[in-house]
Amino acid sequence: MKNIPVLNIQQFEQSIPMSNFYSNDLKSHLEKNKDFFNKPHRHDFFLCVLFSEGSGIHEIDFNTYQVKPGSVFFLRPSQTHYWIFDNQPDGYIFFHTQNFYELHFSKSKLEQFPYYYSYKNRPTLHLNSNEITAIEPIFKSINDEYRNSLVYKKQKIASLINTVYIDLARQYSTYESIKNVTSVTYVETLRSLEKDIDTHYKTKKSVKFYANRLNITPKHLNRIVKTTLGKTTTDLITERVILESKRLIVHSNNSLSTISELIGYQDYAYFSKVFKLKTGNTPLGFKKVYQ
User: Fold this and answer.
1) What is the C-alpha separation between 187 and 286, in angstroms, rounded?
2) How far apart are CA 100 and CA 106, in angstroms?
3) DSSP code string of 132-169
4) Which of 150, 158, 188, 198 can bridge 104 by disulfide, Cβ–Cβ 3.0-4.6 Å?
5) Per CATH, is 184-290 categorized as 1.10.10.60?
6) In the chain, where does the domain assigned CATH 2.60.120.280 lie?
7) Does residue 96 contact residue 46 with C-beta atoms inside 8 Å?
8) What is the DSSP letter of 220?
């Protein structure tokens, strides 16, 4: 089986001894990693990138987004993505683990920011020229701090990242349609549900299973998901199954029947029916179109 590569921070910079953070200007980063940035891959960390120049496309989990000056992208661990550029890009990029941020802000979680809150929120934002001018110097400061060896280096980087995330969250909330969730409990439950689905979706597809893990009733769980995302719990489970099946269809050498079994469907005909219902195409049709 051909697997999608999963990259970690240590692979990107051996000369700076930080295993939980990385930063670079975009030109240098892409030049150093030209052998794989245009091929599907995953990360085991959070990624934020600002484009001040360039154009092209960025595919994230089979959704295609335009790259242009002012584009900002946010990726969570395990998402599959790649870039294709028409014109030479420039800007800044940084990665970090969840622990790197939350160690310095123990009372805050990355999921507080709307772009990391749920996989269902758009992973991109577009800034106008004035907004780029305001925020690009902070990205540069992050990169400068990373490349220097001053005291309180990690603390300064974490503080700058927090500032960037707050400023971008304000812009994101302005431009993106986000459902206002007033209940902190709902937010925490949704976060736990998405993590549980990500762990168990191949073998557990019933709402009752996830409700039991969260110590609530299936009815209440559906109410939470409906209020926060406008979907049902079954929708979330099925969407996670379909996403993984797409990854395997496109990026592995397995037969379609084997893929069906790998994601928990022993009956390929039933899997194909579910896949077509959700995507409008059969697994074979999707493979042909994508290729």
Assistant:
1) 34
2) 10
3) HHHHHHHHHHHHHHHHS--TTHHHHHHHHHHHHHHHHH
4) 158
5) yes
6) 6-175
7) yes
8) H
- Cβ-in-10-Å burial (0-12, 13-18, 19+) of 290 comes to exposed
pLDDT at 2: 54
Location of structure tokens 């019933």: 206
pLDDT of residue 219: 95
Q: How far apart are CA 265 and CA 207, in angstroms?
A: 17
Q: Where in the chain is the domain with CATH 1.10.10.60?
A: 184-290
| C-alpha to C-alpha distance for 218 and 233, rounded to whole angstroms | 9
User: In the numeric block, which tokens belong to residue 90?
Assistant: 């420039």
In this prediction, residue 9 carries a pLDDT of 67
**What are the pLDDT digits (tens) for 145-181?**
999 989 999 999 999 999 999 999 999 987 654 455 5
pLDDT tens digits, 76-106: 988 889 999 999 999 999 999 988 888 887 6
How much of the chain exceeds pLDDT 70, in percent? 89
Nearest to 221 by CA among 235, 209, 211: 211
Nearest-angstrom CA–CA distance, 180 and 71: 24
Tokens, residue 270? 């039933």
In one-letter notation, the amino acid at residue 73 is: F
What's 6-175's CATH class?
mainly beta
